[in-house]
Amino acid sequence: MANPLTPEVLADPVELTRVLVDVESVSREERVIADHVEEVLRAAPHLKVARLGNTLMARTDLGRPQRVVLAGHLDTVPIAGNLPARFDGDLMYGCGTSDMKSGVALALQLAVEVTEPRYDVTYLFYEAEEIESVYNGLFLVSQTNPEWLEADFAILLEPTYGVVEAGCQGTMRVMVTTTGRRAHSARSWRGVNAIHAAGEVLRRLSGYEARRVEIDGCEYREGLNAVRINGGHAGNVIPDRCAIEVNYRFAPDRSAEEAEAHLREVFEGYDVLVTDVAPGALPGLTAAPAQEFLAAVGQTPVGKLGWTDVSRFAALGIPALNFGPGDPNVAHAVDEHVEVPKIRAGAETLRRWLSVTGG
Amino acid sequence: MANPLTPEVLADPVELTRVLVDVESVSREERVIADHVEEVLRAAPHLKVARLGNTLMARTDLGRPQRVVLAGHLDTVPIAGNLPARFDGDLMYGCGTSDMKSGVALALQLAVEVTEPRYDVTYLFYEAEEIESVYNGLFLVSQTNPEWLEADFAILLEPTYGVVEAGCQGTMRVMVTTTGRRAHSARSWRGVNAIHAAGEVLRRLSGYEARRVEIDGCEYREGLNAVRINGGHAGNVIPDRCAIEVNYRFAPDRSAEEAEAHLREVFEGYDVLVTDVAPGALPGLTAAPAQEFLAAVGQTPVGKLGWTDVSRFAALGIPALNFGPGDPNVAHAVDEHVEVPKIRAGAETLRRWLSVTGG
């Protein structure tokens, strides 16, 4: 199959987005799109290219004092009858338009066209972001080729609607369990009702005052919530167990260990089991490339509330933020779309930032 | 297959129990045992016999001023490697020994041997008590042949360990539902957490003071308990619904309507849906045959806390009580058993009561 990523397509970020969208690349089926992108990257003499599975790394090596990463995932959630891409006025509809082939298009265009960037740049186009971490291309690179990720600053082109979303909050799930003693419900006083005991856990959650933390001018707003509850055996049995799954979204000034300690304090007296944790990422906006990027955008950053792959960079000590043209509110939706002017504005912002030769 | 219910077997209530236990009769597989019992009943010239499905009715028609019912179900819960019956000292082990072939044995022996009872007697041996009501032989009779149940007093030979358990409590299940508004748990303040809202429902349950009611000298102790709770959609979603299934066991001085009104009061402000109800039964111990039965037993009756088929008689205005040799604490257990002396004592008590010719 001829590579649809022709020079004419690469010259226009909107057309490039459309063509990338029309190459289906549901998670774990990214081979074709990765082949096309690899071919384009290898044709650029200023880039050194390497591949791991369906993840591509391309880098300049100009001896600049600083290096930045631009990263985007190639995969999408499953198609929902929303391909090929179609236009409706200023909107381009289709699976992956927002999350995040419009972002990938911006990075790919810069990779090919900006031969003399202000910093050395590492471009990462990776696989399997939309599924379990174990398949995530960025995770796999961090395990096998961590040197690919080394940089002073990283931008993930996740959909943010053109807003700079810095760092990200951590997320922790714990199972809080209450216990009791089973009995027939006709003689309930012989038992101890574990569901009734859960009332106190829910009372603590209702009364919990979540923190709002400001870091580098970005506000992070925490949340502590029961997301699932389950207890009971049968309609005539006093239950001896009730499990409340609690999700804690915590500001990045707290480590995973501190978050756990906090939850153990909140639920003192109950059995608390951590079932899932992903640490947050500090915004790290004080690094020079970050400051210069913010100047190019000309906009106040906000704290990222959801968890994203920026925390993989944070774990390596690399400040990272999210910035992309897509609208996060329609990501994964059947009517997923991106606004064409947002693609053009993003392309200009990034090019301005990368092209300016520092003072 | 030859009928194992020979005259020698019928002459001894313990041997009769053993033989009945060894005829497997899990719910909906009662045909063979019903055939054997029918043959025995039809051979007794003083009985008029009728059959509905695998339920048998046999009655005397001696023109006595009063009629009593003796009833027992032929089915058992599924066998759990606990057949055939075996003896260990004074204990007979096996599926159905307690619940309730020892009780069936007492009634069947009386049916065959007491040709001149003090009252006219209707014996009922019925199917499918251990499963959903719609299959219950007593329920089916009440729908198609209610005249079979007409009597002044009824005894169910359910396991009571030789204690007279009068009437029974009612049981009602309601679903109490809380609602909220879904949101991503990273932006929890945009949602309303329905599981947190359930805390107040559990608080009311924890603080509930259950009534203890005395009727005809029997104490009925109520209970109001959450038996199941379920809420939540995913680990990252603020839940918009939580359902708490509540079981109310209520004393028989309350009707089903009064019980429902009470629960609507307790859970005021919440959505309450009645999912299941079975009214209780007043002990009705003032009827003459009941008084004479208590005199024969020579023991103080207690209130029945669990729901049993006695309330089917109560619904027809017939006072009813539970009295059987089995131990209710081992009913349905793998180590189900009955004490041999309890069988003999029960047989003697019932025979004494039925055989004495009134004043």
Task: Walk me through this protein's architecture.
- The structure is a homodimer of 359-residue chains.
- Chain A has 359 residues and is an alpha+beta fold.
- The mean pLDDT of chain A is 94.
- Chain A contains ten helices and 19 strands.
- In chain A, the strands form five sheets. In chain A, strands 1-2-6-3-7-18-8-17 form an eight-stranded mixed β-sheet, sandwiched between helices. In chain A, strands 13-15-9-16 form a four-stranded antiparallel β-sheet, covered by helices on one side. In chain A, strands 4-5-19 form a three-stranded antiparallel β-sheet.
- Chain A has helices at residues 7-10, 13-22, 31-42, 97-113, 137-144, 194-207, 256-266, 288-297, 310-315, 340-355; strands at residues 48-52, 55-59, 67-73, 86-88, 91-93, 120-126, 153-156, 165-166, 170-179, 183-184, 212-215, 218-221, 223-232, 237-238, 241-250, 271-278, 302-303, 320-322, 337-339.
